[in-house]
UniProtKB/TrEMBL annotation:
PROSITE patterns: GST_NTER
GO MF term (any one): maleylacetoacetate isomerase activity
Span of domain GST N-terminal: 1-87
Protein name as catalogued: GST N-terminal domain-containing protein
Family that this chain belongs to: Belongs to the GST superfamily.
Length: 240
């Protein structure tokens, strides 16, 4: 295949999820290379340096010309050179979609820190912190604006784009932590979560073997786990 996409655990890796979902949603053939995250960070870095100069995922290799692209947003832009459907065809919608993807790429620190991605768990969030509530409010505002301006069903119009792929991990987080968005934003996040490409990632992540104690603890943060969709995988991990 022309493209090889290096990713980390589907259970945890929001950064990997974005380009993977984009490839799947646009039906672009690619080969997946899964590299489990490791408890030993030094060993993980040595492993990841064998395919990524930043020792991070995702990393895309274009096998047709050996080009290596090691950033999720850069991967989207690289694909757009050959697959224009990565972004909306309308100029205004395309600008909005690029802004939305860039905002996700660099922003929303509270939801990243307080609601780490774990596709298999359902966690009782409790009362959001002020910072987390600001992120939730901004997500609601952004999604409502996109749907209102461009008519939906996706964030910038009728066609699924990179902007939607970039918010796929947010859809997963909303399900994990029971975060409800108001108005069309809530309907959008439900629609995004049910997209076949997003569901394929989630379903594979639930049954994935590479469970790490530190990532589980970072997701739970002392909160109540309401449900574990991958219960057997946890039992296997604990040797029970």
């Amino acid at each position: 295949m022309t493209y090889t996409l290096h990713i980390a655990n589907k259970r945890y890796s929001s950064w990997s999820m974005r380009p993977w979902v984009l490839f799947k949603a646009l039906d672009i053939p690619f080969e997946e290379k899964l590299h489990f995250l490791q408890e030993d960070l030094a060993e993980q870095r040595r492993d990841y340096l064998t395919f990524s100069p930043s020792a991070k995922v995702p990393t895309l290799v274009d096998n047709s010309n050996t080009t290596l692209v090691h950033d999720s947003l850069a991967i989207a832009e690289y694909l757009a050179e050959d697959f224009p459907a990565v972004w909306p065809s309308d100029k205004l919608a395309r600008a909005f979609a690029r802004c939305a993807a860039a905002e996700m790429h660099s922003g929303f620190p509270a939801i990243r820190n307080e609601c780490s991605m774990n596709v298999a768990l359902r966690i009782e969030l409790g009362t959001p912190s002020e910072a987390l509530q600001r992120d939730i409010n901004r997500l609601t505002e952004l999604f409502n604006e996109g749907i209102s301006k461009f008519g939906g069903p996706w964030i910038a119009g009728k066609e699924f784009s990179a902007a939607d792929a970039f918010y796929a991990p947010i859809a997963s987080r909303c399900k994990t932590y029971g975060i409800q968005l108001a108005g069309p934003a809530g309907e959008y996040i439900d629609r995004l979560y049910e997209h076949p490409a997003v569901q394929a990632w989630v379903e594979e992540g639930i049954v994935e073997a590479g469970i790490l104690a530190r990532y589980e603890a970072d997701c739970i943060q002392g909160r109540k786990v309401l449900k574990n969709l991958g219960e057997q995988q946890i039992l296997d991990f604990l040797g029970l």
